Amino acid sequence: MTWWVVVEEQRTTERNWTMSERYSFADQETAEAEALRLAREYQPAYPWSPKSRKVLRGPGGYVVIVEGRTSTFHFRLSVLEEI
What we know:
The chain is an alpha+beta fold. Helices cover 17% and strands 53% of the residues. It has one domain (3-81). The protein has one helix and five strands, in the order ββαβββ. The protein has a five-stranded antiparallel beta sheet with strand order 2-1-5-4-3, covered by helices on one side. It is elongated, with a radius of gyration of 13 Å.
């Protein structure tokens, strides 16, 4: 069984969503720990000058709101099981 952490974010100023990163792990516990680490540390494409970040946990992952100098963007991390 393989577990994945998938990062989806807005990679353009038009705010189109795309899968920007994906990581695979042998077990759910490791995937969950990596998702939490990424929620706190991942540097999204936008905004360019992050000032603050809010991490929201929900079923299966996180939504992270990053406030920049002139705009606010968010990205999501999902923990998923390959079947």
